[in-house]
Structures are given as structure tokens and as C-alpha cells.
Amino acid sequence: MDIRESILPGIGIKYRIDAESGDRIVIIIHDDGRRELYHFDYEDLEQSISMTTLNDQEARQVASIIGGMTYKPKQLESVEMTFDDFIIEWYKVEPHYASVGKSIGNLDIRQNSGATIIAIMEKKGKKFVNPGPEVVINEDATVVVVGERDQQKRFKQILLNGSG
Amino acid sequence: MDHLVFEVGLAIALIAAAGLISSRLRFSVIPFYILIGMAVGPHAMELWHFDFRFIESAPFIDFMGRIGVLFLLFYLGLEFSVGRLIKSGRSIALGGTIYIGINFTLGLALGFLSGFPVAETLVIAGITTISSSAIAAKVLVDLKRTANAETEMILGIIMFEDVFLAVYISILSGLVLSDSSSLGGVLLSALIALGFMLAVIIIGRKAVPLLNRILRIRSNEVFGLVVFGSLFLVAGFSETIHVAEAIGALLVGLVLAETEHAKRIEHLIVPFRDFFGALFFFSFGLSIDPLSLGGNAIWLALAAVILTLFGNIWAGMLAGRTASLSPKVSANIGLTIVARGEFSIIMANLGKEGGLLDIVQPFAAIYVLILAILGPLLTKQSKPIFNMLNKIFKFKDPRLRKEESKTI
What we know:
The complex is a heterodimer of chains A (about 160) and B (about 400).
Chain A: E1 2-8, E2 12-18, E3 24-30, E4 35-40, E5 48-54, H1 56-66, E6 80-83, E7 86-92, H2 104-107, H3 109-113, E8 116-121, E9 127-129, E10 142-147, H4 149-161
Chain B: H1 4-24, H2 30-39, E1 46-47, E2 50-51, H3 58-79, H4 82-87, H5 90-113, H6 118-129, H7 133-142, H8 151-177, H9 183-206, H10 208-214, H11 220-240, H12 245-257, H13 262-286, H14 296-322, H15 327-336, H16 342-353, H17 360-380, H18 382-393, H19 398-407
Antiparallel strand pairs in B: 1-2
Helix pairs in contact in B: 1-2, 2-13, 2-17, 3-12, 3-13, 5-6, 5-8, 5-14, 6-8, 6-16, 7-8, 8-9, 8-16, 9-12, 11-12, 14-15, 14-17, 15-18, 16-17
């Protein structure tokens, strides 16, 4: 991959990325924080065929997604990603939630909501990937859940009230 | 002077209305500011309480326009960096030289062939040479062209023009503003101007650590006052030694750009630049009586527009070739920087201050109006224009030629 950086005085910084696939992507970081992504046609590298504008925050979220999901949702209550009908959502467990202290099996999450917990991150840094039914949901943990939109809704109910 | 605030309020309201119209039409705002200024003025009417003649407030509006020039040039200095220019490479220096060389020569030819004296010719060449950074940069962003291959070259040429502008104003202000008429006297004042510039830059460079310390001010209010104070003092002092005050402002910007506070100053200055800049275009329009625009000024301006279009496309193609860009991309270069604006008007004002022929002002007005409107249009339509030109000239792609020779 070939990346070229150049300064655009009065506008911002430009990165030109030639990917192995032959695609050319140009990213402009404007001085006002806006990001513009351009995609160039690899049959005619002078013609941009699509472009997207993101604001600063959106750009950071997209970057974390492209960067391989290492995104840690520290400041955010919940982050959402969608693949067709499937949504991956982050939930921060507040101390007053009825589900605090109960295990996944006790709450019977899969049965009641249809959604699946794919990861739990404890505040102290303990991580559970694909947690089993014995894992307990503690306060301040972040729960990553995959499911369709109404499944997510039911899961949120369980998290709040302890049951569907 | 009883109703000064009211008159200035009326002026600002008119400018705001012009701005609103231009943004509704999605158009460059500069020609609208000038046009609204031209529409009012001493020849205009007085409606009940609303005095559209701006007789009492004219000197005041004029002064605010002058402040606008100071802020424009100050900002230019802040943004500009020699390091950046050097980094941007040989092809850009070459492209910039080609661009200025062609357009400046054409400007000189126009002036001399029209029978103007030397000073007027030099001012006219200045007006026709320097593109509007404001319009070009805005058009690039608005048309989503920043990602294109020619963008670096375009911005590089603009930066190069800024350097040319600084040196040229300093020489020209020595020539036009000084009282001496002998060659020696003119040279002397040009030397004083250049010497002053060098002195400020050198002292400024040495003083950067000191300036860093002085500007470490927590209060925004005091910080602003210190920056404004130094800007106005240096600019005003420059004027006393026949160096255009705009140059003084540019120098202050160049020096402060080196300090660690450059970003904060930039942040502080932008609203002032925009506000007083708008008044600058308005006051320029105000100084022109549209009823006097007949005859020579129009023909001269039209000739200059044609020359500029020709010079731009030619220079763009050549500059693009030096950077081995394709003809299609090269055509974009010339067509994007065709717009003329703030710097041409600064040049025209210099001519006015120096008491040159009256035709320079209306000429600059028509010329800037046409190109400020035509520039963004040409940029937008660069593709069909290139296709049309290509049918006539059949440009060769330097990259293809290289590949051909490789295969042989």
C-alpha cells in the first residue's frame, strides 16, 4: 500500500492511499475537523466516483470500526453497528439495573430476548469473550450484544428490569 | 455625523443582504459585496430616513475597509510558511513561475499597448496577475475537488503568487507612493521597503522565544489587544516610511506565524477578517460610480479578461506538464485560478493612493466583477471546456508519451 501525505494550505491535510486492490482512496482532513473520503475509479484515476463527508466524531467511530473493533466505548452509553438486520450494540450497565449481580443463565437472555451477548468488558479490565451462562453481569460493565432490532429492545428490558 | 451608527448599520445590513443572496444562489460572495457597494453611493437616493448615499459615513466605511485589507494580509502572513513552500517542491515553484511569468507579461503588454505610463502599466499588470486565494480555495472545497491530482499544484501556485504579491507591492509602493520622480529616488524607496521587510523578518525570527513568552497571556481580551496593537502599530509605521500598510500587516503575520500562539491568533482573527473584509469589498464598490463606467474602462477590462483567460489556460497546461499531470488535469489548474478578487483590488487601491489615472479603479472593478463570477463557473465546467479545447489543440498526454518511449 502506498500512502502519500500532502498539506493543502488553508484547507487541511490530504492523504492519498493506493490500495493493493488497485483502488485509490483520498482522505482530506479539513482544518475545521471535517473528513472527506473520496474513492477513485481505478480505470481512470483522475475521476472520483464517490465521496463521503463525516464530522469529527463520526470519523473517529468509522476509524475504530475499520481499525478492527478495538474501539472502547468509554465515553458513550451505547454504540451501534448494523449489518442488514443484525445490530451490534454496546450497553453500559448502570448500578440501578435489576440485572446487576445476576448471571446470564439466570436471566435466560437467549430464551427471553433472542439476542446473544458476544462480550462483556468489566470496569476493572476483565474481559469475557462469548461468555457462558455462568458469567455474572456486574455494574459498570459494558455488554456487547448482537441481535435484530426488536431482540435488542427486549434485551434492554431484561437488562433494566431483570426479566423480559 | 449624528447618524453615523445608523448609516453604518444600513451599510452592514446591505452587505448582509448581498451575502444572503449570494449564498442562496450558491455563488462566490465577493462580486455581490462589490455590486451592492456600487449600487449605492453619492449617486443613489435618499429614502425617508434611509440615506443610501453614505456621504457622512463614507470616510468611516472607507477606514473599516482599510482595516479589512490589514486583516486579509495579516491572515495571509499567518497562514504562509516558507518551509511549506520549499517542501511543496520543485514542480510547484516551476509552475508558479510559469503562471506569474505568462500572466504578468500579458498584463504588461496590455498596459503598454494601451498607451499607459509605466506606473499605471505596472499596477494593471499587478491587477491581472494575482488570483484570488479566497475564491480559488473556496471553489475547490465547494466543488469537492480537494482530492484531485491538481489540487496541490493549484494551492502551490496560489502560495507562490502570495510571495510575488508581497515583493511586488513593496516595490510598487516605493514606486507609486514615494514623492520622488527620479529613478534613483524610486530605487531608494524600493530599497527602503525591501530593507524594512527583511529587518522585520530577521528581527522577528530572533525574537520568537521572546514573543512566545510575551504572548503567554491567559486573558483572551488582553491577548487580542496585544495582537491588534502590534498589527496596527507596525502597519501604521510602515505607511510613514512609504511601505504599503498592507505589507506591514503581512510582516506581522509572518513573524507571529513562527510563534507557538499562531493557532490561537488565527482563531481570534478570522471573524475580524471576514467582517472587515466584507466592508472592504463594499467600500471599494462604494468608491465607484456606475454611471461613469462607460467607454474605455469597459473595453480595457474586456481585453484584460480575454488575455487572462488565455494566459491562465496556457499557463495551466504548461505548469501541469512540468509536474507530468495529464492534459485534462492540467486544464483544471488554469481554469480554477482564473478568479480575481481581493488582491487585484488592493493593487487598484494602491494606484488610487498614488494618484494614478482615474481609469484604474473602474477598470479593476469591472475586471474583478467579471472574473470573480466567471472563475467559479469555469471551474465547474472545466470538463466540457477541456473537451472543447482538446478537439482544437489535441493535447498530448506527457505520461502516455513516457510510457510509449519505455516500451520502445
